[in-house]
Write a structure and sequence with these properties.
single chain; alpha+beta; Defensin A-like; Serine Threonine Protein Phosphatase 5, Tetratricopeptide repeat; four-stranded antiparallel sheet; 7% strand; flat; Transl_init_fac_IF2/IF5_Zn-bd
Amino acid sequence: MALQNIGASNSDDAFYRYKMPRMVTKIEGRGNGIKTNIVNMVDIAKALARPASYTTKYFGCELGAQSKFDEKTGIALVNGSHETAKLAGLLEIFIKKYVQCYGCGNPETEILITKSQMLQLKCAACGFISDVDMRDKLTTFILKNPPESKKGSKDKKAMRRAEKERLKEGEAADEELKKVKKDVKKKGTTTTSKDGAKAGSTKKKASGSDEERVSPTHSQVDEKEEHDDDDDDVQWHTDTSAEAARQRIQEQLSAATAEMVMLATIDTEKKAKETAKANGSSPKGAVSPKAEEKSKENGNGSSPKGAVSPKAEEKSKENGKTISATTLTSELKESIGKGVSASQLPGLLDSLPGSGQEKMDALFMALFEGVKKGLAKEVVKKKKYLAAAIAAQGGESQLLLLGSIQGFFEKSGAGKEVALILKALYDADVLEEEHILQWYGNLKGANKDSKIVKSAEPFIDWLQNAESETEEE
């Protein structure tokens, strides 16, 4: 059932807690016997805390038509054909006059009839008492049919009295307990035994007496709880093994993403092992002692993250190790479609084989493949993925992204939106000015007449002019 806020002034408040169902009407009969049936009048009246006969009678008074409400069946009828919007407007006027508080506007009011036969609204929220205009026709109907007094007022008074009596009894019982404890302490201090046996027998009797079997006080209970809390000071440690880390990852991530990440890592490990067995080399990630010695002798050290040397690329191509661009883009596209977020993208890129440029090209193709018009808007929507990829690659990763944009437009054969894409990424702080100018200089030196150079030229001119203007200022 559709709900709406009570009162037209509160219709736009999304957090308003006083709701009522929307009015549903049905026109019945034909000719002179046509009637409008308000189907959910009982539900509306319950939400307003008013009898349904009041609202039905108000519609009849305002429309000048005969109205009737059946208490047994709950059917509200108004003679004539009336639109739902018109009846809803009349209901809003009824709410203002007979439901909402004239002081705070809340509908938590109760109709009171004074001794002088005047109607008042008493607000339970603010306590304000509103005087109803007695010139309205409905007031006479309300005076003849007053609202039922709230039942249980006498029962509430009786409950309050019983609560007061219980409190008094509890206080008296506490005082008796205190007296008993004082008497026990006095007896323990005053009784002095001449013989040790008598003293021991008195102690045994005191320990076995009913006086000491009194329930403990709140202070004693609190002391026991404090001692129990002191015993719970246990040093805990976390398991940092690989299996425990995998279990924590599976618990934290959702089921779909956890399976996807685990499958990606398992596939890459299997491929690395198969290629290592086929070529007789060590698996991916393992470095042989000879390779370490050679790297130490040459002083090259380890290569940066994501960077692949030309010799390594040539050897991998000869051995068939490199993954094709289509499979790389399809894997990235599939994983992004399954719900990999921008924060999880760096880990996914690290698990995939290939150089940094290949990964960036595949990511750009996976995100924007098939987009012909409005590419700049799509780039703005998915800028988080590009920013995450740049943060993961590090170093000259912005030049890699610019190279991916260049390659994308060279393959598609269109370069009209290059300036718009550069401007969008520059405004989003994904690309910096230095790297854009460096890329443009290299591209212009290689081929001045390319479409990409001509398309990016207006944005580059804007960048340089903006620089000169700021320096002059």
